[in-house]
Amino acid sequence: MKIRLLATTLVMLALLLALSVGGASAQTSQFSLIVGPSQAYLKILPGNKATHTITLENSGNQTLEVTPKILDFITDGKTGIPVLLGKTEFAYLDMTDSLFRPISLAPKTKAQLTLSFSVPPGAKNKEYPLSILFTTEKLHSSLADNRDNPSPVSGSVVSNLVVLVSDDSVASKKIALKDLAAPKFIDSFGQIEFAPVVQNEGYAATIASGSASINDFRGKKLAEFPLYPDSILGFSSRELRSYTAADLTPRLFNYNPPFLIGPYKVVVEIDNSTETQQEITTEYTTVIALPFSLLGAAGLGIATYFVYTKILKKITL
Amino acid sequence: MTKQALLWGCAWMITWTSYHLALSPVLAERLESDSYVIQFGNFNVTAGEKESASYKVTDTVGQTGAGPYGQYGVSSYFVGGGFQYIYQIDQFAFSISKLAIDLGELTAGAHNTDALTLSITTGGAGGYAIYTYETKPLTHENGSNTIADTTCDSGTCSESSAGLWTNTSIGGFGFNATGSSDVSSDFLTTDHFRQFADSSAAESMQAIMSSNDIVENETATITYKAGLNSASQAAGRYDTATVFVAVPGY
Lengths: 317, 250
Known about the structure:
The complex is a heterodimer. Chain A is α+β, with helices and mostly antiparallel strands.
């Protein structure tokens, strides 16, 4: 009996050992990189210096060789996703030999990259949207490793930094509505959906604030949408978004009651106020809701009646 | 006759209206969301992550005049005014399940595949995009033979537009992306493939996944596929390097 118990225990232990060894060998290489902050804004007064530090964390299980590179980015005019350009024309970064040297990052370790900026006195007021691209490669432990993995895969992660060189004492805010993007006519069973696009006419990034509303022909407010505080970079445009108090995630402007009829006024109020001056810019458009599909249904009903009676007549003849 | 026709029309109108009213949603505030994360406690009172009085401040003091840049006159600082700037100090995480793709020995009349998983977490409401490219066309280990990027069954798919690719007599090299609503909409099925943009031919990297919102552990599976065009192409092992670039929104 004891021998049987001992044998069973040994077999189970052997099985567990085999499974754990199998599990380890089946484990794949993993790239996992965390960068922070993902987005930052830095204002530098001409004649001054500034620094910006980015932290990288290798949360994967492979040692990575990370090489930083700075690129300019532009906006796509609609979303907040940067479009990376292949190079940078930013001239105020203090270049040192070690700045763009590859960093070896062991698993579960962190590294920091500090960028130093020097802006000469009299530098032109301008905004510089930059992307710091961290290109990574897995460090091959041996030649055999390299041979066994003929098609390497690598990952790169970006941290965005918008540098503003400015000697303006008060942040100006000049957001203008470029397009309200609301339809002229909609069906009564449809919904009022609009996607306003604004243009920042200033050279510095600013925050969208204000609200949009939908009013009926009597001027009664049917729906109100606070503007999501998205950042609009200097001299660029962006599609506005909204949010609700219950759900702070950004959402589209959408009013969807069971039935709509007549004219509806879509109003967008953009708050261009600064610390010294109150200014609200208001734009509106009218959307007319008509029962197109209802009239279509009636027409279809009448048409089918005539077709039906015609067929009935033919059959009876 | 006309009266009856009008009555018939009215009946259709009533049916159509009833259908729409039955379909209309119950209007109620949604109090939960898959990506609902409360990271700040108030809107109008000063709050949040002040690191030093002279160097780094992240604050929320109401929206009038709020902006990404701070007060004038401080030589080196960062001020985030407005609640979305709580997101700015958040991290951006990107993972790839494996760092090598093995398509095995390629032979005529068959497609070989291998897959990896991409995973992304963003703290910022600006969203993200993942781009991809290859550094060179798929090249035989002898270094001289290459396999062209796939043009799919119809001969029309490209690095920016996926196409159906199931015919094993049509060779090439491409990839499919699936498993997330953030994946580009041209990947209609798991049999829809795109070419990798070829950086050696000066092709621009292409977005394959994106969102304008906060995401947490959004995951997609990338399936690589390759095949020989004809028996005259050299069988064997082929390789290339592929890169995935994760870009946070602002």
